Automatic annotation (TrEMBL), chain B:
A Pfam family annotated for this UniProt entry: B12-binding_2
Protein name: Cobalamin-dependent protein
SUPFAM superfamilies noted in UniProt: Cobalamin (vitamin B12)-binding domain
PROSITE patterns in alphabetical order: B12_BINDING
Gene3D superfamilies the UniProt entry points to: Cobalamin-binding domain, Methionine synthase domain
Residue ranges of every copy of the B12-binding domain listed in the record: 108-233
Length: 448, 347
């Protein structure tokens, strides 16, 4: 097997011991072979993935090609991510690897030293078990490593951007060891791995921040006892950062609730933070008085007072109070510059509801008037942001007429059917999926 | 739900009848009660999903094909079954979405289930999610119409064991291929499945998928046999894939051009028939893209047969399919390989 093949070969296949040794010898035999290996490794490590997956991939790669034992440990905000494998045994993967307290202390001090170390293992004595325990804790690796009868362990720190954030522990079966040339080569290999894992960790941390924000902008699942059938859809324009300026919220008690949909100007994280602020103001106001006109007046004042830059604080929203009345749902709506909500009756009638109040964040003395509509069993209220009607096709925008066409014929269907039918129609209509605005849709229906 | 006894045939038939009544009345709650009662009586989850929910869905699809049901009615009925399967998924402890683990929580490896981009048929994928969850897997459902970026994001958020890609339409193969590329470039194996694929697995192999599942029943076995890691798929080269890449972004334009050609004819389709044809032509062009990608005229031949059934039940004569395919062919003058493929399919 040539070195090139051995790098890119399906990493799940196991070489037998002789082949492994031959592969390792082949890899390090010449300077040219080593350079080729490092080149191939660089292209193999360039893909980003979840850090846990990355750790496991590199353990498998090292054990397949270069050494008989490999353990990769990365210290993250969430704690240690560690996986290890002895050739011929199953991998102890990140999910099952438990780092012991003492082991964690030893690994942390090795991180601080940030130097390659060669540990000579004492022969079969209690000390040997203790030394191995420092690196492998109480995992199965502790016993499996003994099958190698290794005399030395090589510990190489992972350093990226000037920070040591992880360790790679390696061993070879007796009588193989680590000469200076092989150590220098493995340090280069670990250097490449470190750059890749560092990038995975950075991206993962950043996505975690964005995801946390996104989660806080979506409504929680409704309690099933509320007799309301609610469905929502949201798609963000900048999918790689997972947040946008559209927001949906639902709060209150079982028979008196506030449903909010809105659209803060802009895209991405800045818009999401503005959206979060509006949502909080609406929640706070609703605790004082659930009347939507009062809530929107107050929210507008909060937004205007908070920001000097009008453009950054501009937002549209519909605030709807949902009150259960025997076999009906009384909906009191206020519209602040937002596309008009639509009511779809069980008989197929489609009507828009709500007035035309000013958008939030413009006038500090803006006043809002509410309108009331009563939904019977099976009737449905649809709220949406302008990402729906302004979805761009090849020749024109999606528009209200197409939206009504979609709704016609879906009278009495579950809220999820309406939401999905609308989302699907926009997706099919939009000519370029990479050029889409934030989109949110929410439908609420009184169960018959 | 743990009992292994299947329901007696008569009981399943009865459940199917009741379920059908609920679905055709858009009554999601009643539909859920019907399957809930069957499960409480000891029916296996897989039997309920297959013999009741999927059987009902086949009937819904058939009614639309034969022109007896409108698209809206089909949507509404499908949504009822989706509602039911989502409830069953929750019942076995599953969840939709791909939110990453909370800080401090060690992430366990997951199976990601996704529809190809522009594929909205989420029901088969939801059934797969439910069966895999019941079998003890941690499953994340990314939904219908999953973009490359959404999949990339999910792979960063969750340590992923495998990506399962559902495609109900043969016109989706290019989008399936993009998911295969995204996953394999992170070393993650892929399983494809759905009516968009041939039973022999030829298309799956051509797309570079690691494996194909023929249905919900065998997907757990297929997952168990997957390698832990795969190598990145090789680029698809040759005149077919090159033309597929050029033609795909022009799908809507080619379909519209073909429609205009048909409209100029004295016997041009009108009214509802014309609307249906205009809706389906992009799917036909999508199938040409797929056929180019996997070098298989059968993809186009199948879509021709299926278009014939759709049009026939709506008053289009048998010659309308030929006219429609000829109009598409005329629009493909810059795509010689596509024309050859179309000719092979209609020969």
């Amino acid at each position: 097997m040539s070195s090139r093949e051995s790098v890119s070969a399906d990493l799940s296949t196991r070489l037998d011991d002789d082949a492994l040794t031959a592969a390792a010898e082949g890899v390090v035999a010449t300077a040219e072979a080593r350079a080729t290996y490092l080149n191939d490794l660089t292209s193999a490590v360039s893909a980003l993935s979840h850090p846990a997956r990355g750790v496991e991939t590199f353990v498998a790669g090292l054990v397949d090609d270069l050494v008989d034992l490999a353990q990769v440990a990365v210290r993250t905000h969430q704690g240690w991510l560690v996986a290890g494998q002895v050739h011929g045994h199953r991998m102890v993967d990140v999910h099952t690897y438990e780092v012991g307290r003492n082991q964690g202390r030893v690994m942390k001090s090795l991180l601080q030293q940030r130097q390659t170390e060669t540990w000579l293992l004492p022969p079969d004595t209690p000390q040997r078990a203790e030394v191995l325990g420092h690196l492998f804790g109480t995992t199965e690796l502790l016993h499996e490593v003994e099958s190698l009868h290794a005399a030395t362990l090589l510990i190489v720190p992972m350093v990226a951007r000037g920070r040591c954030f992880g360790l790679v522990v390696m061993a070879r079966r007796a009588p193989l060891g680590f000469d200076d040339g092989y150590i220098a080569f493995l340090e280069q290999v670990v250097g490449r791995i470190a750059v890749s894992l560092d990038a995975c960790c950075v991206v993962s941390d950043n996505r975690h921040v964005a995801s946390t924000l996104r989660r806080s902008l979506l409504p929680r699942a409704l309690p099933s006892s509320s007799r309301l059938d609610l469905a929502s859809y949201s798609r963000v324009a900048q999918e790689d950062i997972t947040v946008g300026g559209d927001f949906i919220d639902l709060h209150g008690s079982g028979d008196d609730q506030t449903l909010l949909i809105g659209d803060a100007v802009g895209k991405g994280v800045a818009a999401a933070i503005a959206a979060k602020r509006i949502r909080s103001a609406v929640r706070t106001g609703s605790m004082v008085d659930r009347d939507p006109a009062f809530v929107m007046r107050l929210t507008n004042q909060v937004i205007v007072s908070e920001d000097d830059d009008v453009v950054e604080s501009l937002a549209t929203a519909v605030c709807a109070r949902l009150q259960r009345e025997d076999d009906a749902l009384r909906v009191t709506l206020v519209n602040a510059g937002h596309p008009l909500p639509i009511v779809l009756r069980t008989d197929g009638t489609v009507q828009t509801v709500g007035g035309h109040g000013p958008a939030l964040g413009i006038f500090d003395d803006a006043d809002y008037e509410s309108q009331t509509v009563v939904l019977g069993p099976g009737d449905l209220l649809l709220l949406y942001t302008d990402g729906v009607t302004e979805a761009r096709g090849e020749r024109d925008l999606f528009g209200e007429v197409r939206l009504r066409d979609v709704l016609t014929g879906l009278a009495g269907a579950p809220a999820s059917a309406l939401v999905e039918a609308v989302a699907m129609s926009i997706s099919q209509f939009a000519s370029d999926s990479e050029d889409r605005d934030d989109t949110a849709i929410v439908a609420v229906r009184l169960l018959p | 739900m743990t009992t292994a006894e299947a329901l007696p045939t008569g009981r399943v038939a009865e459940a199917l009848d009741d379920y059908w009544d609920a679905v055709s009345a858009n009554d999601a709650e009643r539909a859920l009660q019907v399957v809930g009662a069957a499960l409480d009586d000891g029916a296996r989850l897989s039997a309920v999903l297959d013999d009741v929910v999927a059987a009902c869905q086949r009937r819904v699809g058939g009614l639309w094909l034969d022109g007896e049901w409108s698209v809206a009615r089909e949507h509404a009925a499908t949504a009822v079954s989706e509602y039911v399967v989502r409830a069953l998924l929750a019942r076995v402890g599953g969840e939709a979405g791909h939110e990453p683990a909370e800080p401090g929580e060690r992430p366990s490896p997951a199976l990601l289930v996704a529809c190809a981009e522009r594929e909205w048929h989420a029901l088969p994928a939801l059934v797969v999610c439910t069966l895999l969850t019941e079998a003890g897997h941690r499953v994340r459902f990314l939904g219908g119409d999953v973009s490359t970026r959404t999949l990339q994001g999910a792979l960063l958020d969750v340590p992923t064991q495998a990506v399962l890609i559902s495609a109900s339409l043969a016109s989706s193969l290019l989008f399936v291929r993009r998911h295969v590329e995204t996953a394999s470039h992170s070393g993650i194996p892929t399983v494809v499945g759905g009516h968009g694929f041939d039973p022999a697995g030829r298309r799956a192999r051509a797309l570079g998928a690691t494996a194909q599942a023929s249905g919900g029943a065998d997907v757990a076995g297929v997952v168990a046999g997957l390698p832990a890691r795969v190598r990145p798929v090789e680029p698809l080269t040759g005149p077919g894939p090159s033309e597929a890449a050029l033609l795909a972004p022009r799908t809507t334009a080619v379909a519209r051009g073909a429609m205009s050609r048909l409209a100029e004819r004295p016997d041009a389709p009108e009214g509802h028939l014309a609307d249906v044809l205009a809706d389906q032509l992009p799917v036909v062009v999508g199938c040409v893209v797929s056929g180019l990608l996997v070098d298989e005229p059968d993809v186009v031949r199948e879509t021709g047969g299926w278009l014939g059934r759709v049009l026939d039940s709506r008053g289009g004569g048998p010659e309308l399919v030929d006219l429609a395919l000829a109009a598409v062919r005329d629009e493909l003058h810059d795509f010689p390989t596509a024309v050859t493929l179309l000719d092979a399919a209609t020969a």
